[in-house]
Amino acid sequence: MPQLTVTEKPTIRSICVFCGSSKGNKPAFMEKAIAFGEIIAKQNWTLVYGGGSNGLMGAVAKSVLAHGGKVISIIPEALVAPSGDMLGEVLIVKSMHERKRMMAEKSDAFVGLPGGFGTLEELLEMITWSTLGIHSKPLVLLNTHGYYEPIRQWSDRAVESGFVIQSARKVFT
């Protein structure tokens, strides 16, 4: 008789959040960022993020701190001055690549909130790393106002067109 294996859910202690350093043009973007920060703190997770106090990034971090949570800011030297006040434990690194590597090392899961090109690049790198077997951590897109719907559609089209394997498409929800 075959043995059944129970797969345990990974223990989440830290969440890396990728999101915009701008607040966007819909109040719901900021509202969801603040609410998600509260959830992170109440779950006793540590927020790992790109540092700074501006936009959605700052809103999530300030909310985590306001609700008694822990924050780790990882920021490249070149971005220290334009990022505003530093929040939580601040780790300054040499480059953007080192920042992403350290964010991945210090996180048990990744969440993408709305953002611009930098946010998209960070998310796509984590998706790529997962498909290459570099990590197997959960990745979730917070699809406020359908913000990430075009990415989901593109991913489905890439699978249908034979450029992405189905299992890779399932990396994020």
Automatic annotation (TrEMBL):
Family annotation (SUPFAM superfamilies): MCP/YpsA-like (SSF102405)
Signal peptide: none
Pfam families listed in its UniProt record: Lysine_decarbox
Entry GO terms, CC: cytosol
UniProt keyword annotation of Cell cycle present: no
Highest rank taxon of the organism: Eukaryota
GO terms of biological process kind: cytokinin biosynthetic process
MF (Gene Ontology): hydrolase activity, hydrolyzing N-glycosyl compounds
Residue stretches spanning the membrane: none
UniProt KW Heme keyword: no
Record protein name field: Putative cytokinin riboside 5'-monophosphate phosphoribohydrolase LOG6
